[in-house]
Structure formats: C-alpha cells, structure tokens
Amino acid sequence: MRNILRKELRLSASLLSFLFILFGFMFLLPGYPVLCGAFFVTLGIFQSYQNAREANDIVFSALLPVAKRDVVKGKYLFNCFIELCAAVLMAVCVILRMTVLKDAVPYRDNALMNANLFALGMAFVCFGVFNLVFTGGFFKTAYKFVQPFVCYIIAVFVLIGIAEALHHIPGLECLNAFGTDQFTLQMMLLIAGILIWLLLTFISYKLACKRFEKIDL
Amino acid sequence: MSVAEIKNLCKDYPSFHLNDVSFSIEKGRITGFIGRNGAGKTTTIKSMLNLVHPDGGEILFFGKPLCGNENEIKQRTGYSTGTVNWYPRKKLGEIVDVVKRFYGSWDEEAYRKYLGLFGLDENKTPREMSEGMKVKCNLLLALSHRAEVLILDEPTSGLDPFSRDELLEIFMKLKNDGAAVFFSTHIISDIEKCADDIVYISNGRIAASMPKDAFAREYSAPGETLEQTFLRLERGETNA
Fold first, then answer.
1. Which of B55, B99, B144, B145 to mutate to test the interface with A (most CBs of A within 10 A)?
2. Do A63 and B81 make contact, defined as CB atoms within 8 angstroms?
3. A56 touching B, CB under 8 A?
C-alpha cells in the first residue's frame, strides 16, 4: 500500500495537486462561498489524472507486481491524502474562526455560510462526491475524464448551493453557529460529514475495482 | 519444464478474433513469437500480462493461474512493452527508485550492470531519449529483478544493429542462467540467431509452435532461410 501511494506521489501526481491544497485556506475568506475551496482542492487532484494519462500511468501501474485493484487503490489513496491535507488546513481555519476570530466583524456580517464545523463536514461531503462521481466515473474507462469531471462539477455546485442556502431556512439557523455555540450539534455534523466521505469513497472504490477489472488496457 | 502455459486463449474484437491460441514457454529456452502486423501477437502478450481479458482459455505461470496469483507471478516475471513512453518528464533514476521497491528480488548489481551496458543515464527523462533508448529503459526494469521469465513485446525494434546484437547475447546469457525468454519480433534474423523455439501466429491462430530445428525441417524448402519460409507461408504457399 505504501509503495503504490509513493508511486502516485512521486510519479503520477501533478505539482498543482499539492499547490491546490492551499485553497484550504479559503476557509478564512469572509463573504465568499468557502466550500469553493474544497472544489479547488479537487480541481488540483484532477490535474494529476490528466498528468497520469499523459504518462501512460495506468498501464505502467498495471504492469507492476500488484493486483489490478491495487492500481485503483493507489488513486483513491492519493485522493484521500490530498483531501486530508486540505482538511487539516481547513480545520486550522475553522478553529481560528471559532476562537480568536469569533467576533470579527467581516465574519459576523456575512450572508454566506460561516466556516464552522458544519462547513468542514460539508467539505468532506464535497470530497466524497469527487471520489464517487469523478474517480468512480474515470475508472469506467481508465482513460476518459471529461464527462465524469463535468458531472462532478454539476453535482458539487448543486451541493455547495444547498449548503449555502440551508441556514437561511427557518429553524436551521443553528447550522451557521459562531464560536463554540451549538458545539455538540456542530461536532455531530462534522462527524456525519466525515462518515459520508468515508462511505462515498468506499462505495466508489468498490465500484471502480469492479469496473477496472473489466477494462482491456 | 514449462514455466508458462497458454491454453485455448480466445479473444473476440469486432474485426479480429484470437482463436484457440495455445503454446508453452520452457525454462532455459528462448522462444521467438512471430507473426505479421495484426496477427494477434500483442493481444496474446497483453493477455499474458493481464492487460486484456480473454474471452476464453487459461494462462498459467509456474503451474498457477494468472488470475488470482497476479502479484506473485509478476514478481517472478519481467516485461517490456516496446517503445511505450512512461512518465516522459521524470528522470530515469526517479522512476527506478519507485519501481524497485515493488520487487522483493530487486538486484541492484544487475541494475547497475545493465545501466552501464545499455549506456543509459539516470538523469535523463524519457522525453530526452531516442526510441531505442526507451526500449532499453523498459528492458532495464525487466532485467533488474532476477525474473525467471521475460515476456518482451518487440524488444529489438528501434535498436541499432549493435544494441540488437548485445541484447540477443544477453538473452543467451539469461537462458544459460536458467531463465525463459519469450519475445515477439518482426525481425526474423533475430529469431534465426538466438531462438530455440518458434511460436508462429497467423490471423489470430497458432500456425506452428515447435523447436526451431523442427520448424525448419517441417516448413522450410532446402536452402531456404527462415525469413523466406515465413514470407512463403504468409503468402499462403504451404508446400516446402
């Protein structure tokens, strides 16, 4: 497992995948749909798939002494690695906004969603949707990535729109909690987001293994 | 002793069928796989590497089916797929450093030896290499982990006559060390020079699979070279 991840990081990955992790800091931007940061992180991962196709990476990996499902596993491990790195940056931003910046005026006077634990949970859901729709779709052919990426863009922006709108619905204001208000609920929402990410990634991985097994390279 | 057996391999494409392909690869022998473009050589080799899914038949390495034993079999097997361009912007040394960790039997001494023999530079990227150098890179990876079987798709294509000669000598040495070498080629003189066995594929069917001497006795006319024999057979003239 370590070898296949090392191969992904050293041979297949685009530098942009690592640079785009920094979009996690978008969780500090006031008056901006912060979940777009999660989208930009996945846009960076997408660059690595382009890079990998140009380098004949899938066939090269399939020729290594690993089972075909390990080629798929390598891609999912890479996705998760980048996503977790970005989530750490986002978590730092969330902690800052929950503590030292909790009363900062630009964050309080913000019609858009607050970058709180719920937002972090939703970022995980965005990552899960990327793993499910894009990576799962990519492994239908292990070659074509435009269609799965367009489908992912539509799905993720619908999701971001819903997430941004939710706290305006009467009774759901608690989703936009500041500081440590509604901490238990916020924490549960974060855990739910992580669980959805894990579930979507696992379902996608299993589907991708089945699909990749049937492909002639 | 057979180290690889291909039994009744079938693969249907819309415009091409691989029909009942069967042959075996023997330990300590060099097998030349010959056939014209589109005859089914690459499909057969890709099936042997589990890159293509056969519609029927069985592929065994070391007595074990490829399906389910892929990892173990690939550890004991070396591959080269011609001039395919892997990671064009990565340095050879970096590619090797990643790849060698996958092989428990990686032989650093053999790697250094072949690196020098092929005149390759670890600091060069595949995009800076000629087609022949890329073939050598693939061979370098295949030869550096003490493979018991080498499956090579057109390893001599793109090589200059000196490199080809060196490579054929390496095949002979590997054979003497007990390895099995299976290589496809269009260059019949390569087969004439070093192959012990011939597998001849034509229109998706195995037309002959036998030792080279037996092939010559059965198919060649007196004084005819192997190349002339193949040309005659491909033209449909079967009478020697």
1. B99
2. yes
3. yes
Which chain B residues touch A68 with a CB distance below 8 Å?
50, 70
Residues of chain B predicted below pLDDT 50: 240
- Cβ contact A74:A5 at 8 Å: yes
- Asked if residues A122 and A193 have their Cβ atoms less than 8 Å apart, the reply is yes
pLDDT at position B84? 65
Q: Which residues of B fall below an 8 Å CB-CB distance to A?
A: 46, 49-53, 70-72, 74-75, 79, 81, 84-90, 94-95, 97-99, 101-103
Rounded to whole angstroms, the Cα distance separating A52 from B42 reads 23
pLDDT at B60: 93
Segments in chain A below pLDDT 70:
none
Q: To which H or E segment does residue A98 belong? A: helix A68-98
Region for residue A30 given its phi and psi (left: phi exceeds 0; alpha: psi -120 to 50; beta: otherwise): beta
pLDDT of A64: 92
Closest CA–CA distance from residue A198 to any residue of chain B (Å): 27
Bridge partner list, B65: B60
φ, ψ of residue B122 in degrees (nearest 5)? -60, -20
Handedness of CA A140, A143, A147, A151 (dihedral sign): positive
pLDDT at B237: 62
From A22's Cα to the closest Cα of chain B, the distance in A is 24
Distance from CA of A148 to the nearest CA of B (A): 23
Q: Is A65–B86 a contact, with Cβ atoms under 8 angstroms apart?
A: no
C-alpha pair distances (Å), B140 with each of A125, B78, B233:
44, 10, 35
Pairing of strands B30-34, B180-185: parallel
pLDDT reported for residue A107: 86
Q: pLDDT tens for residues B147-159?
A: 899 998 888 877 7
For chain B, helix, strand, coil in percent to 5 are 40, 25, 35
Task: Encode pLDDT of A65-103 as tens digits.
Answer: 998 899 999 999 999 999 999 999 999 999 999 999 988
